[in-house]
Write a sequence for this structure.
């Protein structure tokens, strides 16, 4: 069966405070990414690390394919973002940028 194409692509880019990488990776892999990937309207969630590029770009990148722009404002999405572990890890973020992209025609 073909994969449903998402009209929205949400990207979070960030660095993490020195010496906190282990906690950051554990949180992302064990709680955050698995939780967001199950939110209704999130079709795909992936983590990547920047291999190269201009100085100043964040090293860690998370990408989410979404059915609507409102997915990131939904109760299930916000519940994953506001856990106790998230509250401990989020202050470790540095150089963070969040961007929502849309397919040029509004649909894939």
């Amino acid at each position: 069966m073909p994969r449903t194409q998402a009209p929205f692509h949400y990207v979070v880019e960030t660095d993490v405070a020195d010496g906190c990488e282990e906690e950051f990776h554990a949180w992302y892999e064990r709680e955050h990414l698995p939780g967001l990937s199950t939110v209704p309207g999130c079709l795909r969630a992936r983590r990547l690390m920047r291999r190269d590029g201009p100085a100043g770009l964040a090293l860690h990148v998370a990408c989410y394919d979404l059915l609507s722009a409102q997915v990131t404002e939904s109760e299930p999405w916000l519940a994953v973002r506001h856990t106790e572990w998230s509250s401990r890890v989020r202050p470790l973020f540095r150089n963070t940028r969040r961007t929502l992209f849309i397919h040029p025609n509004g649909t894939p």
Observations:
- The first helix runs from residue 21 to 37.
- The chain has a mean pLDDT of 92.
- The chain is about 30% helix and 30% strand.
- Helices lie at 21-37, 75-81, 84-89.
